[in-house]
Design brief:
The complex is a heterotrimer. By secondary structure, chain A is α/β, with parallel strands linked by helices. Chain A folds into two domains: about 230 residues, 3-Layer(aba) Sandwich (Rossmann fold), CATH 3.40.50.300; about 80 residues, no CATH class. Helices cover about 35% and strands about 20% of the residues of chain A. Chain A is globular. Chain B is mostly helical. Chain B is about 80% helix and about 0% strand. Chain C is of the alpha/beta class. Chain C has two domains: about 260 residues, MetI-like fold (Orthogonal Bundle); about 220 residues, 3-Layer(aba) Sandwich (Rossmann fold). In chain C, a hairpin with a 2-residue loop joins strand 9 and strand 10. Chain C has an eight-stranded mixed sheet, sandwiched between helices. Chain C is about 45% helix and about 10% strand. In chain C, helix 5 packs antiparallel against helix 6. The chains are: A alpha/beta, B mainly alpha, C alpha/beta. At the B-C interface, helix 1, helix 6, helix 7, helix 8 and helix 9 of B face helix 4, helix 5, helix 8, helix 9 and helix 10 of C.
Chain lengths: ~375, ~300, ~675
């Protein structure tokens, strides 16, 4: 993990505490369904990213993790809440105003085959933002391109070739180079290593870490793979159906999870060792055995739609009780972690509220 | 059912748009029809009389409104030439053209689909021969093919009559004999088009994962090809068929000239020679309505074949 | 008359992607290397240039009459003969070609410009603009071309140019649809999002990223449209609506030929031939262009994977030493694909056995031949692949041909694949898919229905009746994979091949599917061959592991032994690349990528990426050698290398990171 010093970088407020590079408050994003109905894909999410920090967004499909990234990039419209970048509100900015941000805020997408225009050479792809955004001359831009390619460990002659002649891992390096070309301070990595073989994935992760150490860039790292997220992130945000279940320091959340969903996610990720995996599986199956009874008692069968007034995880939770389907859990902070679960809110009325020892985590 | 309603809701404005466009095309283009009708050396006064007689002196929008409201009542106006109701003229000639179009449609489906399937499944030399023939057939103008067939089968071999038409209710045998060549000529392009589309849709589907699953499950090859792949290939094939309907109706207009078949084509050509605008407009609108209806049917068939379309 | 537009591009699911996969400027160069394309292009250019020259220089006196020479057959004086007025047919064809060709070109130019502008607007702006343009496009397609042109002639008289302008407007519908579709597709591409994030203006994105990719299909269609316009033009000429006499037109010449058919039938040939050849050349040009711009599977039969590959015609030889409990045994299995004129193996000479009750994992990076190995075991290697080697499935010696697997598939050996959603036929309900499979395994209708319910219950599907009536697209990924599993076990197979069965699923669903597979395997006593890239999945379910690299087996061992004592540097490197929860580790990765099959060396194939490589590694092929009971390794240094155990081990359970992050 890159824990390089961030002093000397701008963005420290008057009180001396480091100001967030990215501050998302109470974000909501709606998707249009057929007709005029909408579906709330993101509901009340607050996340912040400090300069030079990596924050991991983890969750399964439908958790809204990519939507948050797209909202930050201005590719998805926000319905409520605010997104501040370097102290300025950036949600709902016009295209022109947003263009001014482009240098500082960049992206590396998942699909290395779709994220590069097949009709342009690597040189053209990398030069375009330099010439348009940084107003460099062709010669200056060329020099920067050579430097960028070296930084991401690609041969200099890559500039004259088309994306089609590169492997998935190499294309991701090119996408990273493009993000860096304009001097980004925050890069949104949307499943950036998910399509790669583990051997290549490890290399790209190492590259991301090295660049962070060298340049102090921050990452909003979006992935479905909690092991990868833990490996790379300082802090992790666990999402389920558009809501934050738990967020806190990555190692803390992954070793002693508080939220039952985090537990499920961690339990489901297999460990590459047969004996350890067997024990882990048995623990998971024991937990899962409790789910049907709890869910039935809570009246949260799968066919009941999740409302804004319920915990979205109630239908799969071994600790589900009536209150979980009736009241939205309050955000509770403990041991440096924020968790949204009735178990940790002594006033919630959940019969086991306050019984989980935060030092051990939930089991 | 809901799908049917949404398609209908789409078809109605289409009908309106198509007929309006047709009317405006014929009435907004600069023309000197009155001059032509009056003759070379008519006085300006005579020309003005003719214009007034045809109602051409009234504003376009007013005429449009009159025309549209009468169309809604099923009245397409009357011929400028002989005062005959256009609807009657169309009713008299449309069955001939319609039988040609329907027969061509059937022929292209019955011949085109099997050719496409065989080409896709067999592959090899047969595939190459069929594909090449289809490419050549696409390049042959149907009226030229019609002439060639008249020369070979009517003039040289004398197997079928060269021209003319006998209604079905008069003599079914003669009806068929008279329609064989025109229908083949009209259908040739559609056969090739449908064969090509069928072939590529079949190849595409036989390459899909679900076909591998079916084979791995032990389902027989016959069922894999003819039950599963062909059903999935149905949507693009039907869509092509819908497009071909427009081409077939256009094609039969010209081929009718070769065989002197008294259909909509002759009706239109005669009207054209006499600058008989209401007749041409009527034929155009009726044909366009038929196309819209056919496309509606194709959409419904598609939804029957493909459950995803219904969703 | 026919407008042969849009038939191959008619928005069906059978279309090639609107975005070309190869680069354009190279496409033109490649096009000019194909003799057929050059021939077509030359013909079109020749006819066009000759027509211009004839018209501009007024050569050949095409209008000159010489009644004494009427209806001559082709001769040295008149290469294509003469017409009823004794005029030279060739001269008339070329003289009249100008109107025909230039008219068609004008129509297509109008269609392309109009179609591109409206299509771009509809596709990129979307919403109201899209609705209006779409509606307009539908109307234009609905209007029968020839009738509209006749209507125009009714009010305007014979006016070739007016007709061609109207034709252009009508034909623009095809281009609107094409450009709109490509624009929509390109708009979804991530590189357009990346361009937006980079702060590029809409105009720049359209011009540089959207338009170039949308133009490829336009170019292809443009060529065919030119042919179509030509045929329409000729049709009008035939109806007497072409250029007014005595100026010849191609269609008018056919009409003249028709009148003289009984006197001089030859006249049909030059007039019709000219049109046919020119239209054919234009259509073929479009096809060639499509071939070059798209990696086209659907148009070139050589690449079509329409049926499983046939094996070599040889008597099947079994693997007798495999023993009675071997469900599948292969020796020297090789799968090759033709590249140019040679066969390149993607799996080269592997041997292994899967026994009753075993769960064997097949792991390796992508491009190592795992999937092809799995498909060869069920006779489904796609054409034009060639499979050789000795193979014994469920006690039967089989060659690799599809025939010898008939009767084994589904009942002895079955397959489930990676993407459950596309692995099920979208046009049939779950119920009909299951009953068809069951009936093909010899059950009667009623029996099949009952068994279908039992199978769905067996794979843990709730609300069975609903699922039976559902189409695959109505199911979630996990449910669809359960249905695919039910389908696979419908014939009570002894061996189930599962190709990345959980890769496309969420991790919690993956855990459930693995639980299901484990449960079924134990309850039904099946053998399971699990193809995966995920060592965690291997650890969860497998009893034995085969590691493949570049088409070869490089290590094979019981699962515990493999994870505790890997002996092949490749296996160790894979482990060192896998991030593990709660373990402090430095991920190493493996430099480079798996080499392409054509570039596999004849020494150790991993040598180029191995950090323990020595000269000996490159001295020749390395055999797979036993190092312990049931443990085989392909490495010259296996005896001397004591590889450290993988990241996680039982002795040092989960070296936990500090509970509160390291900041």
């Amino acid at each position: 993990m890159a824990h390089q010093a961030v002093e000397g970088l701008p963005g420290t407020d008057r009180a001396g505490a480091p100001a967030a590079l990215l501050q998302i408050e109470d974000l909501a994003v709606d998707y249009r369904l057929r007709g005029r109905r909408t579906f709330r894909a993101i509901d009340g999410v607050s996340v912040s990213v400090q300069p030079g920090e990596t924050v991991g967004l983890v969750g399964e499909s439908g958790s809204g993790k990519s939507t948050i990234g797209r909202a930050v990039l201005g590719l998805a419209k926000t319905a409520a809440g605010s997104i501040e970048f370097q102290g300025h509100e950036i949600s709902g900015l016009s295209r022109r105003r947003r263009a001014a941000l482009a240098g500082d805020l960049q992206v590396v997408f998942q699909d290395p085959y779709s994220s590069l225009n097949p009709a342009l050479t690597i040189g053209q792809i990398l030069r375009e933002p330099l010439q348009v955004r940084r107003k460099l001359s062709a010669r200056e831009a060329q020099a920067v391109v050579v430097d960028l390619l070296t930084r991401v460990a690609l041969p200099a002659d890559a500039a004259d070739r088309y994306p089609g002649s590169f492997s998935g891992g190499q294309r991701q390096r090119i996408a990273i180079a493009r993000a860096l070309s304009v001097g980004a301070r925050l890069i949104v990595c949307d499943e950036s290593v998910s399509a790669l073989d583990v051997s290549t994935q490890a290399q790209v992760l190492a590259l991301l870490q090295r660049l962070q150490a060298e340049l102090g860039v921050a990452y909003l790292f979006i992935s479905h793979d909690i092991a990868v997220v833990q490996h790379l992130s300082d802090r992790v945000v666990v999402l389920y159906r558009g809501r934050v279940m738990e967020q806190g320091p990555a190692d803390r959340v992954c070793s002693t999870p508080l939220h039952p969903y985090t537990r499920l996610l961690l339990d489901a990720a297999p460990v590459p060792h047969p004996e350890l995996q067997r024990r882990k599986r048995e623990a998971r199956l024991a937990t899962a055995a409790a789910v049907p009874t709890a869910v039935a008692a809570a009246g949260a069968t799968g066919s009941v739609p999740v409302t804004a007034d319920a915990c979205p995880f109630a239908a799969r939770c071994p600790f589900a009780e009536q209150v979980c389907t009736q009241r939205r859990p309050a955000l509770t902070g403990m041991a440096g972690v924020q968790v949204q679960c009735h178990l940790y809110d002594e006033t919630s009325g959940h019969t086991r509220a306050g019984t989980v020892d935060p030092a051990i985590g939930i089991r | 059912m809901r799908y049917l309603l949404t398609r209908l809701a789409y078809a109605l404005p289409m009908l309106f748009g198509v007929s309006s466009l047709a009317f405006l095309l014929l009435n907004l283009l600069p023309n000197d029809i009155a001059q032509i009708k009056a003759g070379e050396d008519a006085t300006p006064q005579r020309i003005a009389e003719i214009r007034a007689g045809l109602g051409l002196d009234r504003p376009v929008l007013e005429r449009y409104w009159d025309w549209l409201s009468s169309v809604l009542r099923g009245d397409l106006g009357e011929s400028w030439h002989n005062g005959q109701q256009v609807v009657d003229g169309i009713l008299a000639t449309a069955p001939v053209t319609l039988s040609m179009v329907v027969l061509s449609l059937l022929l292209s489906l019955l011949v085109g689909v099997p050719i496409g399937v065989v080409a896709a499944v067999r592959g090899g030399v047969l595939d190459r021969v069929l594909v090449s023939s289809a490419v050549v057939a696409l390049a042959v103008p149907n009226f030229w093919l019609a002439l060639l067939m008249v020369y070979v089968f009517a003039l040289s071999l004398g197997i079928v009559p060269a021209t003319g038409y006998v209604p079905l209710d008069v003599d079914p045998g003669q009806w068929v004999l008279h329609l064989v060549l025109p229908v083949i000529a009209v259908a040739s392009v559609a056969v090739s088009a449908i064969a090509r589309q069928t072939r590529s849709a079949m190849l595409e589907n036989l390459d899909r994962d679900y076909v591998r699953t079916l084979r791995a499950t032990g389902i027989g090859e016959w069922s894999v090809v003819y039950k599963h792949a062909l059903k999935n290939a149905g949507v693009p094939i039907l869509t092509t068929l819908g497009i071909q309907f427009v081409n077939l109706s256009g094609g039969s207009i010209i081929v009718e000239q070769v065989f002197a078949v008294p259909g909509l084509g002759q009706y239109t050509m005669t009207a054209l020679a006499r600058n008989d605008v209401p007749v041409v407009l009527g034929v155009l609108v009726v044909t366009a309505i038929a196309v819209v209806l056919i496309n509606l049917v194709v959409d419904l068939l598609n939804s029957a074949v493909n459950p995803k379309v219904r969703a | 008359m026919s407008i042969e537009l849009a038939t191959e591009t008619a928005g069906g699911p059978g279309d090639t992607s609107p975005v070309p996969v190869r680069h354009r400027s190279h496409a033109v160069a490649r096009l000019l290397r194909r003799p057929g394309a050059v021939l077509c292009l030359s013909w079109v250019v020749l006819v066009f240039v000759a027509s211009c020259v004839f018209r501009l220089l007024d050569l050949g006196r095409p209008l000159e009459q010489k009644l004494i020479d009427s209806y001559q057959s082709p001769s040295g004086d008149h290469l294509l003969g003469t017409d009823m007025l004794g005029r030279d047919v060739l001269a008339r064809l070329l003289y009249g070609g100008w109107e025909t060709l230039a008219g068609a070109a004008v129509a297509v130019a109008i269609a392309i410009v109009l179609g591109t502008v409206l299509g771009l607007a509809a596709g990129y702006v979307g919403r109201a603009v899209d609705t209006v343009v779409n509606w307009l496009q539908d109307i234009l397609i609905t209007l029968p071309t020839i009738l509209v042109l006749l209507a125009v002639a009714t009010v305007l008289g014979n006016n070739v140019w007016a007709a061609m302008i109207v034709l252009g407007v009508l034909m623009s519908a095809t281009f609107i649809r094409l450009v709109r579709a490509s624009t929509l597709a390109v708009r979804e591409e991530l590189y357009v999002d990346a361009a937006k994030v980079a702060g590029l203006s809409t105009a720049r994105i359209l011009a540089r990223h959207v338009l170039p990719n949308a133009m490829a299909p336009v170019l292809i269609q443009g060529s065919a449209a030119l042919g179509a316009a030509l045929v329409v033009q000729a049709g009008l000429g035939f109806l007497g609506l072409g250029a007014p006499p005595p100026v010849p037109s191609w269609g008018g010449m056919i009409a003249e030929a028709a009148n003289a058919m009984s006197i001089q039938p030859w006249l049909l040939v030059p007039s019709g031939g000219m049109i046919i050849l020119t239209v054919l050349a234009l259509n073929l040009l479009g096809d060639y262009l499509r071939d070059e711009l798209y990696a086209s599977r659907t148009t070139s039969p050589e690449h079509a994977r329409r049926r499983p590959a046939r094996g070599p015609q040889q008597a099947p030889v079994g693997v007798p030493e495999a023993g009675p409990d071997a469900l599948v045994a292969v020796r020297d299995l090789t799968v090759s694909f033709p590249v140019g004129d040679r066969l390149v193996p993607v799996v080269s000479g592997i041997s292994f056995t899967v026994r009753r009750g075993e769960v064997v994992g097949l792991v390796g990076e992508s491009g190592c031949g795992k999937t092809m190995t799995g498909l060869s075991l069920i006779g489904l290697v796609p054409e034009p692949g060639v499979v050789t080697g000795r193979m014994q499935v469920a006690g039967h010696a089989v060659d690799a041909g599809p025939r010898s697997f008939r009767g084994l598939r589904g009942t002895r050996i079955a397959l489930i694949s990676q993407e459950p959603m596309v692995a099920l036929d979208p046009s049939f309900t779950v119920g009909s898919l299951l009953t068809e499979a069951l009936r093909s395994h010899g059950r009667n209708r009623a029996d099949a229905r009952t068994r279908a319910r039992e199978l769905l219950e067996l794979v843990g599907i709730p609300r069975i009746e609903d699922v039976l009536r559902s189409y695959p697209h109505q199911l979630s990924g996990g449910m669809a994979q359960r249905v695919a599993i039910a389908l696979a076990i419908s014939g009570d197979p002894e061996l189930l091949i599962a190709d990345e069965p959980t890769t496309a699923l969420d991790v919690t669903v993956q855990a459930e599917i693995l639980d299901l597979l484990r449960d079924l395997q134990q309850r039904l006593g099946m053998g399971l061959l699990l193809i995966t890239h995920d060592l965690g999945v291997v650890a969860d379910i497998c009893t034995r592991v085969i590691v493949m690299y570049a088409g070869e087996i490089v290590e094979e061992a019981p699962v515990g032994q493999l994870f505790d004592q890997p002996r092949m540097p490749y296996t160790r490197a894979l482990m060192a690349s896998t991030p593990v929860l709660d373990v402090v580790q430095e991920l190493h990765g493996i430099p480079g990528t798996v080499p392409l099959p054509a570039a596999w060396p004849d020494h150790c194939r991993f040598a180029a990426r191995c950090d323990l490589v020595v000269d000996r590694c490159r001295s020749g092929p390395v055999p797979l050698e036993p190092v312990a009971v049931g443990h085989e390794v392909r490495c010259v240094r296996s005896a001397e290398l004591a590889l450290t155990p993988a990241t996680v081990s039982l002795e040092t359970p989960a070296v936990r990171r500090q509970p509160v992050g390291g900041r």
